[in-house]
Design goal:
Blueprint: H1 22-34, H2 43-54, E1 59-65, E2 68-74, E3 77-87, H3 114-129, E4 136-144, H4 153-160, E5 168-175, E6 183-185, E7 189-190, E8 194-203, E9 207-208, H5 218-236, E10 243-252, E11 258-259, E12 262-271, H6 274-294, E13 298-305, E14 311-312, H7 314-328, E15 333-335, E16 354-360, H8 379-395
Parallel strand pairs: 3-4, 3-5, 5-16, 6-15
Antiparallel strand pairs: 1-2, 2-4, 6-16, 7-14, 8-12, 8-13, 9-11, 10-12
This protein binds zinc ion (ZN) (2 copies).
Residues 112, 114, 147, 173 line the site of one zinc ion.
InterPro entries: Amidohydrolase, Bact_exopeptidase_dim_dom, Peptidase_M20, Peptidase_M20_dimer
Binding site for Mn(2+) 2: 112, 114, 148, 368
Keywords: Hydrolase, Manganese, Metal-binding
Length: 396
């Protein structure tokens, strides 16, 4: 749909553009990248964010959860309260980017780009902190922990009550399969999928590898389950309905000559309608139950309904598109298809309307891939759009 390429326009913008700390933006991103921490363990990342926020004028700091940080900027004039959210956690993925500032932590890396989210929101806070006199209302900068791992960090922050006065929430995610610096406006209504997951242990009976008749081989059974689950999307979900069933984990066995006593599977499920969500869950449970029974095995299944879909508020989404166009120019803004990814940003709509947008970062390697990387030139556009959205919302 959109060609790859680097077409960041640096058109002359509003006066505040010169206040964007462009060098720090990259420095912060690289520091966070190098010191990646997984969900719920973002201790040094949240300390780093807090220490940087402390260096800005006019920002009050809250710690609504152990590893979340919220900066609050109260403008000189009264008005509404708007929040922008960045997530800070990394993934249990061994980085393979070859970057000089690659993660120092083994098997942990920012393969989803949350390092960029955090750095951009810091730059947005830095820029706006110099504009207190012009700001009408209050801005919350939410640096959230644990987006990648259910039940997610958003729930903790909401539960703390720290965000109860917020009138609108905005969030932004980097996507590598769009040109660097291009802003994707997601659809009104459902803008991401619902996310469910399951953990399954198939319990067989261990045996000598040369004596299969004395055991019940859980690897064969689990393999059968993996194949059968592929038919849910192809044979059960109505054509045109969106559904994804991905088995991302399959662990069993320790030795070539030993029949294992159990096999473990983990899967993620994405859907966009309640009916399909239920249909997929019912089929998964039925296939697991019947296949294991058929082979004389038993199982433990933990099936979780996780994140709901992000619901873009139509009026705010329209405003955000106009903000993006005025911040980075029409040629850098496009209407993006819904994200098949899920987001715990979706929970914030319990408090107030929400809008989620995307930022193209070039390079084409998918989020969560060990080689995921981003074109840092894109980040400045992200900051411009964030600042513009916040100002437009408070001024409208
Ligand atoms: Zn992710
Ligand atoms: Zn993410």
């Amino acid at each position: 749909m959109h060609a790859q390429g680097n077409q960041v326009t640096n058109a002359t913008g509003p006066a505040w553009v010169k206040n964007i700390p462009t060098d720090d933006l990259i420095k912060w991103r690289r520091h966070i990248h190098e010191n990646a921490e997984v969900s719920f363990k973002e201790e040094s990342t949240s300390e780093y964010v807090e220490s940087i926020l402390k260096g800005f004028n006019n920002i009050k700091i809250l710690k609504p959860a152990k590893t979340s940080v919220v900066g609050i900027l109260k403008g000189a004039k009264p008005g509404k309260t708007v929040a922008f959210r960045a997530d800070m956690d990394a993934l249990p993925v061994q980085e393979e980017t070859g970057l000089a500032f690659a993660s120092k932590n083994e098997n942990i890396s920012h393969a989803c780009g949350h390092d960029a989210h955090t750095a951009m929101l810091l730059a947005t806070a830095a820029t706006l902190s110099k504009m207190k006199d012009q700001i009408k209302g209050t801005v919350y900068f939410i640096f959230q922990h644990a987006e990648e791992q259910a039940p997610g960090g958003a729930k903790d922050i909401i539960k703390s009550g720290a965000l109860k006065d917020v009138n609108a929430f905005f969030g932004m995610h980097v996507l590598p399969n769009f040109p660097a610096g291009h802003i994707g406006i997601l659809p009104d209504g459902a803008a991401s999928t619902m996310s469910d997951e399951f953990s399954l242990t198939v319990i067989g009976k261990g045996s000598h590898g040369s004596m299969p008749h004395l055991g019940i081989d859980p690897i064969v059974i689990a393999a059968e389950i993996v194949n059968a689950l592929q038919t849910i999307v192809s044979r059960n979900v109505p054509p045109g309905e969106m559904a994804v069933v991905t088995i991302g984990k399959f662990q069993a066995g320790n030795a070539p000559n030993v029949i294992a006593d159990k096999a473990e599977l983990g899967a993620t499920i994405r859907t966009t309608s309640d009916a399909t969500r239920k249909l997929v869950e019912t089929r998964i449970k039925s296939l697991i139950d019947n296949i294991t029974k058929g082979y004389g095995a038993t199982y433990n299944l933990d099936y979780k309904n996780n994140y709901p879909a992000v619901q873009n508020d139509p009026a705010l989404n329209k405003m955000a598109k106009n903000s993006a166009v005025s911040a980075v120019g029409k040629s850098n803004v496009f209407d993006a298809p819904m994200m098949t990814a899920s987001e715990d940003f979706s929970y914030y709509k319990q408090i107030a309307p929400e809008v989620f947008l995307t930022l193209g970062v070039g390079n084409g390697v998918a989020n969560h891939n060990p080689a995921f990387n981003l074109d840092e030139k894109a980040l400045q556009n992200g900051v411009k759009v964030q600042v513009q959205i916040i100002l437009d919302y408070l001024n409208q």
